[in-house]
Specification:
The chain is an alpha/beta fold. The chain is built from 18 helices and 27 strands.
Amino acid sequence: MTIFTIQTQPFEGQKPGTSGLRKKVTVFQQPHYLANFVASLFAVIKPADGFAGKTLVIGGDGRFYNDTAIQLVIKMALAQGFSKILIGQNGILSTPAVSNIIREYGAFGGVILSASHNAGGPDGDFGIKFNIANGGPAPEKITDAIYAYSQTISRYDIVDCVDVNLSTLGTTHVGDAAITIIDSVADYVVLMQKLFDFDAIRALFQSGFSMRFDAMHAVTGPYAHKIFEDILGAPKGTVVNGTPLSDFGGHHPDPNLVHAHELYALMMSDAAPDFGAASDGDGDRNLVIGRGMPVAPSDALAVLTANAHHAPAYATGLSGVARSMPTSCAVDRVAQALGIECFETPTGWKFFGNLLDANRITLCGEESAGASSNHVREKDGLWAILLWLNILAKTRVSVKALLENHWAQFGQNYYTRHDFEEIETDKANAVMTHIKAQLPSLAGQTLGAFTVQSADDFSYHDPIDGSVSHNQGLRVLFTDGANESARIVYRLSGTGTVGATIRMYIERYEGEPSKHGQDSQAALTELIQLAYRLANIEALTGRDIADVVT
């Protein structure tokens, strides 16, 4: 094994966002582009005594360029002196599975090759991120340092060796390093069996309960076939689109009502099964739809928190719960009723890591169809679906009844997100600047039926390590005539690859039972109009209609 030093030059824009570095495949295919980032990553995380004796996990969601990227990461990791490298068979590992393997095997960290819910294929997106030893995404101090190094890089090291066979399980040796291809699914299945009452869920299916799971030709297909059909006894055919494809079958692997439209149409039809679900490209997001009843992101984390005690792992109670700032406040009321802490963090799973490690929280979630617990340090789509199934198995009520019972007890938070995608960066920044300029004068103003309580640019003070994260989103908080809470949140998303995405989050609490169960867009009409006016979105961007509404 020979180590070569390659001369290179920096690329602009290699700054990791909330979920690593994401760009178009064609950008990553540029000579040295991916190598530069990987070299910057290794330079930043390298311990003083080097990587000898340490284990690196590598896996991805199977999207186009995944195999090529994995071979490059292997060869650069070998050049750095890693003693062990664990790789999912065929390069496949869901993001929560990577987190679990890091923790289970005591690895130094893991490289995840994915652009999550973004479109795949040769003309689609690709991404890379690093997860640290606790299994969670690298914190900002690491990602900032990676970017800084990438802007001055002049060389990187790589070994000259044949490509590793990713399809055959087992261990091979390259020099002093052991490279092991592991079953992508096995360790994750063992973990789920520790958390949930599989016997109760199996009995639910045996009773005639029916389900449709759409894997969207993404990473969770093999996991879903194994868990739902092979172990829990759901009929063959319960899992559809279960073969991971490099282009996700030409579809967008984002489990929302727009991109999972076939599942939605089925669940709204007379032929609907009892339960419908989907997951995204890398397996960390979920969509849940009951017969005739989609579960809104505003309800999901709150309902799971209120009912988690039905699963063995959470039967003794929760230490606390956390949500990202744009995520619905519905869970706050549940936490108050349970007498547990509730934290509001910036967007990005890395901000939950400290709270989980300190045992201040057990469950956490984001509005973008993501929830998880202390079992890993990532959001986990299949975990969330299994928790729903465990709850339904124990309560033996429908999803619709479960939601209605929840609203009757805690009230309903009407919630929607309006996304304006691929906005020219300067125009997106102009929108945020326009909104931010209004914040100091908004408090106390009456705007239609709503009075502004406060308006700010959200900053997060981490209660564990004392770090502060500024500029995490613009908030406008209201009361209406009944002193019920409402709010509008604006932020720029860090998950796109072209221009910028402006996200507007609109939410209003409704405590009156007779007003529950409305369509969210109808219930929020006045507040949505107000959100558009405050942002001056049409004048500043030329757009008057959001690209995605959830």
